[in-house]
Amino acid sequence: MLLLASLISIVFSLFFYCQALSSGLGRKRWAFAGFVFGPFVWPMFCMKKRMKVNELFGFGGLILRA
Question: Cα(61)–Cα(63) distance, rounded to whole angstroms?
Answer without folding.
Answer: 7
